Amino acid sequence: MIDLTKLHLELFAKGRTILFCGAGISANSGIPNVATFLTYLLRQMGAKTKDISQFLNSGYPFEATMDNLSERFDIKALLNVFKVKNPNLNHDFIAKLAVNGLLEIIITTNFDTNIEIALKNNGLKQNQDFKVFSDFNDFKESDLKHNLVILKLHGTIENLPTILTNLKRISKRQNVLLMENVLRIVLANKKNQDILFWGYSFSDHYDIRPALLNMPRTTKQLFNLKYISKNIPVAIQDVSKLDPFKKFSRATKMNGNLDKIIGDLYKAKGYNRPPKGKSNPIWKTYIKSWITKETGPGFKDKKNFIGTLFVAAGFIELGRAYAKGNKRNTNNSKNGRILRMEIAGILGKSYLKDPNNRNVGLATKHFDDAYSIAKELKLDSYINLYSGNLGSCYLMADEFDKAEQLYKDVIKFYEKKLKKDPDSSEFQDRITGYSIMLAHTLTKKGDCKSSIDIYKKTLILCDDFGLPSNKELCLAGYGIAHLYNKNYVAGLKCFTQAYPLAIQNGSIDRIKSMFLMVCSWTREVHGKARAAKFYKSEIKYIKGKTAFNKPLSNIPTKLLGSYKG
């Protein structure tokens, strides 16, 4: 039998272990984990239980869900769920380790402040004995010189803008570079040798997980305690060769009951246990009251949110069904027309995004309907949103002049917006995204010189704004423009640079697409032997990730279907 208590005592003995805490440590305080929170929220918003289960199993990020929600509603009051001040034994034990000099760096993705409260309950003073960081734009190595630091990677409820900013950044995949910098600085610290994860799921596919994969190799060891119930046997396994643990000298996954381990650690260390906290928090009440307030009279509709969310997460038919079922609630009032406009927008997006049944004609019809209502009601943001959508429809229909003009108009609109709000991740994302679409339109028109100029400028913007996902799309388009221009070496270079970014961003379609492009054009430019070398190095990963399982000989030469060679 593995003694996890003994292992924890050894890790904490010299005060050289970094503790990384996820939502699991706050569950006993009455703060729901992501699955519990979203299940209740989506059910109250009108989603069916079976649809919620399918959605949660997809791995669609919590931050993307919340960002999607914030585009339609004011979510500040909803975040009161994380204001629960009720430190439990986990928080208190962490505080006692710190008081006794056995812990100097605490990292957490949790929004709540129960670690800080526990530290204060144990006699420590904030900014004197410990310092909290929740904004990492200017984070540097010297910030770790404080006696005890708490790094709140996704923000803190004490400073609501840090949460809202992080939700937006993570959803737009802008947070990877920031997290890479934080982890690089922390793990470069020679004093701390190991990193222990408690209650963390490694489900942050848009920032922390890819940041761990991108960081340099470290001599530090990683230990991940996965919480299990008391009636499941303890287990331990080496996960050093698995993602996202490959960069650590050793990575160990442990299954154990954290509550029992903490209880045993109190006894072993001789620490006094604090009085038991409150047992019945009111987080469900927060959610109910927020929904009542936000979705009362007016056009902010629950089912349209569910439809938008499910389409964004890739459940096209589900999202379409929720939107269609909402048509009976429309009327000729202003709010009724806005509701109808949004339904048309959801349906348009569903037909444009559907990989199994893409219908550009229907998408164009619905976006036209949405655009007409937005124009009639003089809703500038919606006018430009649907203009961009129509641009994509015209591009797919080879109506390049129409697409070009719409993209140019939309880019100008968001450039003006960005001047007024230079830090807006939404405007940064829209400008770079539509610039990529404009450049691709020009490529398809045969104006490769202009498209290449736009790609060059947009790549710089993607780096400046920290947009790795848009950078990958930009490099892919840039490569295609080079192929149209018969510069095959430059095209292959772009695809080769885009491939690891596709892996980092996690989209199965993009990973497979870039893998095939690199295989095809490596063979075209450098010959079969070089292509075979790349294929052999990556095919095991590709099989596991995308289920693609064909030999190199089956990958078409000059894969790009519309390539003009």
Q: How would you characterize this protein structure?
A:
The chain has about 575 residues and is α/β, with parallel strands linked by helices. The chain is about 55% helix and about 10% strand. The protein has 23 helices and eight strands. Strands 3-4-2-1-5-6-8-7 form an eight-stranded mixed sheet. Helix 14 packs antiparallel against helix 15 (about 360-375) and helix 18 packs parallel to helix 20 (about 470-485).
| Mean pLDDT across residues | 91
Q: Tell me roughly what share of residues is in helical segments.
A: 55-70%
Structural class: alpha/beta
Please report the total strand number as a whole number: 8
Question: Strand order of the main beta sheet, please?
Answer: 3-4-2-1-5-6-8-7
> Alpha-carbon distance between the termini?
65 Å
Summarize the biggest pleated sheet.
8 strands, mixed
User: What Rg do the Cα atoms give?
Assistant: 26 Å
Q: Low-confidence parts, pLDDT < 50 over ≥5 residues?
A: none
Shape by Cα distribution: globular
What fraction of the residues are assigned to beta strands by DSSP? 5-15%
Number of helices: 23
